[in-house]
Design goal:
The protein has 449 residues and is an alpha/beta fold. It has four domains: 3-153, Rossmann fold (3-Layer(aba) Sandwich), CATH 3.40.50.11540; 159-235 and 369-384, Ubiquitin-like (UB roll); 251-357, no CATH class; 386-449, RNA polymerase II/Efflux pump adaptor protein, barrel-sandwich hybrid domain (OB fold (Dihydrolipoamide Acetyltransferase, E2P), Beta Barrel). The protein is built from 18 helices and 19 strands. The protein has helices spanning 3-10, 22-25, 47-54, 56-70, 84-97, 115-123, 143-153, 183-189, 213-216, 236-242, 245-255, 261-264, 267-270, 277-284, 297-300, 310-315, 322-335, 360-366, and strands at 33-37, 74-80, 102-106, 109-110, 138-142, 160-167, 173-178, 198-202, 209-212, 227-232, 358-359, 379-382, 387-390, 401-402, 409-410, 415-418, 428-429, 434-438, 443-447. A six-stranded mixed β-sheet has the order 9-8-10-6-7-12, sandwiched between helices. Strand 2, helix 5 (84-97) and strand 3 (102-106) form a beta-alpha-beta unit. Helix 1 crosses helix 7, helix 3 (47-54) crosses helix 5 and helix 4 crosses helix 7 (143-153). The longest helix has 15 residues, at 56-70. The chain is globular and about 60 Å long. The chain binds iron/sulfur cluster (2 copies). Residues 256-262, 278, 281, 315-316, 318, 320, 322 line the site of one iron/sulfur cluster.
Amino acid sequence: MDLLEQIKAAGVVGCGGAGFPTHVKLAAQGIDTLIINAAECEPLLRTDRWIMVHEPAALVAAVAAVRARLGAGRAVIALKETYTAETAALQTAIAAAGASVELVHMRSFYPAGDEQVVVYEVTGRVVPPAGLPLDVQCVVSNVATMLAVHNAAQGRPFTQKYLTITGAVPRPCVLKAPVGMSFADCLTLAGGSLEDDYIVVSGGPMMGKPFTKEEAAHLFVTKTTSGFLVLPSTARLWQNHVTPTNHIRNRAKSACIQCSFCTQLCPRYLLGHPLETHKIMRRAAGARPLKDQLDDPVIRSAQFCCECGVCELVACPMQLQPRKINVMIKHMLAQQGVRPQKGACGLQPRPHREERKLPTGKAANRAGVGKFYHTEPQAFLKAQPKRVCIALGSHIGAPALPIVQPGDKVVLGQVVAMAQEGKLGADYHASVAGTVTSTDNGVVIDTFF
Ligand code: SF4
Ligand code: SF4
């Protein structure tokens, strides 16, 4: 099988974001630069760093194979200058393999791992607003995806996820978990919660999705889960999450001082994109309802927002929520079928971009998770849960359809759900051996143990 066929057969999807099927992304043509995003820019997550230190040979082999498949002249692993152990491990692996893979070091700033930011850092090219790295002849993938590609090339399907469990837990760890393992089982391995009243963030503190303790009881590891953070329920990001939208807009009306800090620190604005969030806030604070302003180009520029959270968690001195206003506008526009208009190539970054880069530690402090910022995972654990629940729609595209029935016995790696014919999607495989007990809401497998 060709590498792309192996990746497709293994059900690999992007581990770093929304889960775009990897065999489709890597079928791109006309690419001159493959970039592996190794910034892991969300404060607190340590998964990619763990992989770089402990699986460097596999990572380098996958990067070299993908570069060759794409026909790209350049393959780059882009990481932070502070990642010394990771750099040493990769340099050794690159030398041992004789691979044509470069390391590019970035400063430790947030969001260094934003796809469009990393493209600029590596190539000096600005991806157009609402565009893709493909528009500037780049493909961006990430560390965990490359590890899955390496496994696929060895005939091993995508059934295991590395993820960080950290925050208010006694034993912060990097965990190798079967896809479908419950958050509760993950928390048990990390020693439980140190807080009686806690919330759980799936992902990082800046862009992750928060859940109540009760909601978290229904969370499972998916192909795109990068980590779970356990935080006190008083965490600022939770307060932001639960603030009602009418309250957010009323606060914008009464408290936005038009200082423009939200714009001045916005990573997309700094790349040269036409996104001036303070102007959006001015309109949101006006008397006209947002729904009546959707044809205003300034309002529509909210579609260029990557939802990184810098404006609301760091920049705004009035603790307003420009990101949420942008998200609101994006939803309204999407409901009306208004797609973002791709901008031109060749934009130049703003002159002050370098000095306005936000140190990652400061981002963590402002997000209210500073006390966990220097926590290093104490352990690497291989989990063996008694039950998994494999969600079949954790990728971009149509959900996969189960091909097993309750009562079926499955072995590890067996296909349990297939991508829909002719639609963007990915196959799913049994992440444990056991008996299928339900296919109603994902494929549930009870192990034989
Ligand atoms: S969330 Fe705020 S800072 Fe981030 S891209 Fe959107 S407007 Fe800019
Ligand atoms: S930073 Fe806050 S107060 Fe200043 S313009 Fe932006 S939303 Fe308004």
